[in-house]
Specification:
Structural class: alpha+beta
Radius of gyration: 21 Å
Strand content: 25-35%
Low-confidence stretches: 13-34
Number of helices: 1
Bound molecules: FE2/S2 (inorganic) cluster
Largest sheet: 6 strands, antiparallel
CATH topology of the largest domain: Rieske Iron-sulfur Protein
Number of strands: 10
């Protein structure tokens, strides 16, 4: 095999690998990462692990769910996994929303998309406060 033929074959092989990688990458962008299924857990708000939930604007992560105490003092919970490409969202007090720092998607406190590139909402979970116990459930 001539050197020129060999380099041509290697080039075609590398091109195919690159093409398949790009194809796989594109399919990841159009699918939504899975969110937690049936959820039912209770947080003891006196536990130091959840101390952030004593303060308006504080939030914690539990089982791929972000639980936040909003600037209005309400407890909310949504999937922590961005529906765009799986980034981890954060609660932001400035917009009272969930923000994904990876590409800038923003979600309302009920999980609705406020700003793309995400186009699917975050799964919202119910919360119920009883004394110092916060139940999060679906
Ligand atoms: S992964 Fe969240 S905006 Fe892209």
């Amino acid at each position: 095999m001539e050197r020129k033929e060999f380099l041509s074959l290697v080039g075609k092989g590398a091109g195919s690998v690159l093409f398949l990688s790009l194809l796989a990458s594109c399919s990841k962008q159009t699918s939504s990462p899975s969110s937690p299924g049936k959820v039912d857990f209770t947080l003891d708000l006196t536990n130091s692990q959840y101390a952030a939930l004593q303060t308006d604007g504080g939030f914690v992560y539990v089982q791929n769910i972000i639980v936040a105490k909003t600037v209005n003092g309400n407890y909310v919970a949504v999937s922590a996994i961005c529906t765009h490409q799986g980034g981890i969202v954060q609660y932001t007090t400035s917009n009272n929303s969930f923000y994904c720092p990876v590409h800038g998607s923003d979600f309302s406190i009920s999980g609705a998309v406020l700003q793309g590139p995400a186009y699917s909402p975050l799964t919202q979970y119910k919360t119920a406060l009883s004394g110092n116990s916060l139940r999060v459930y679906s």
